[in-house]
Amino acid sequence: MAQKKPQSGAPKSGSDNKVFYLIGAAIIIAGIGWLVTARGGGIGSTAALPTPAEFEGLAATAQPDKSVGIPLGDPNAPIEIMEFADYSCPHCASFSSFAGKLLRQNYVETGGGPVRWLSFDFVLGGFPNTIPASMAARCAGEQGAYWPYHDMLFARQTRWYTAANPSGMLGEIAEDLGLDTGAFRSCMSEARYIDEIAAARKYGESMGVGSTPTLFLNGQRLSLEGVEPYAYIESLIQAELAARASSGAPEGSE
């Protein structure tokens, strides 16, 4: 609104006017920010997502479905590793940030790598922000960025996993990865992958998963207790490849 000139008295100095406009702009920006937050309209808006308690109801009626795992690597690779993780789980962040990432780099992401990796959301229920994080990773996957987003979620876990409202931090990751934030926002606001997240949890339960991280190598559950995860899993991969080589099994057969 235009400011009326005073009818009497000395005119305001240029410096006073500048301060006045800066204060006004700050108030407007703060008001916009409040409206966005109040309406759940941020880039990583979580307004439409179920609460952990509501998610339990969805998971209870979901059908277990292996196909909802997010794959990485050659679909014909002779070794398949399935990882069940909760994005808010500190042990999952520790595993993913070192052993998991290094295993994927060395055995999955290289051309013709011998391992195919499947990532499954396993919402434990004890963390308030896992569902938004799982949704955000899958929404990023629509733009071919599931794995970069997955890795950044774990790398920045302590910033968002106990936040009262993680929307801003989830949106910040999308921005930092150069995603189309409009498309990301739409995906989040529609809770587009909630059924897949519930089916992933149900599939994990059908495999006997009750804690995270839990991994399976060619269907066999791995025990990571008391071992160095990278060295242990690498030894299993090497043993499996050696056994297949000695038996003359074709490289891509199971």
3D architecture notes:
This protein has helices at residues 14-38, 52-61, 90-107, 130-141, 146-155, 157-160, 167-176, 181-189, 194-206, 229-247, and strands at residues 70-72, 79-85, 115-121, 214-217, 220-221. By secondary structure, the chain is of the alpha+beta class. Among the domains are: 42-81 and 111-214, Glutaredoxin (3-Layer(aba) Sandwich), CATH 3.40.30.10; 222-246. A five-stranded mixed sheet has the order 1-3-2-4-5, sandwiched between helices. β2 (79-85), α3 (90-107) and β3 (115-121) form a beta-alpha-beta unit. The longest helix is centred in the N-terminal third of the chain and has 25 residues, at 14-38. The chain is globular. Residues 1-13 and 19-40 have low confidence and may be disordered.
CATH topology of the domain at 42-81 and 111-214: Glutaredoxin
Within CATH, the superfamily of the domain at 42-81 and 111-214 carries the name Glutaredoxin
Low-pLDDT parts are 1-13, 19-40
Per CATH, which architecture of the domain at 42-81 and 111-214?
3-Layer(aba) Sandwich
Q: What spatial order of strands do you see in the largest sheet?
A: 1-3-2-4-5
Give the overall shape.
globular
Distance N to C terminus: 72 Å
State the assembly state of the protein chains: single chain
Report the top-level CATH class of the domain at 42-81 and 111-214. Answer: Alpha Beta
**Structural class by sheet pairing and helices:** alpha+beta
Mean pLDDT: 86
Q: The biggest beta sheet, please?
A: 5 strands, mixed
Instruction: Please estimate the helix content.
Output: 40-55%
For the CA atoms, what is the radius of gyration?
24 Å
Number of helical elements? 10
Encode the helix/strand succession as letters. Answer: HHEEHEHHHHHHEEH
Strand content of the residues, in percent? 5-15%
- In total, the number of strands is 5
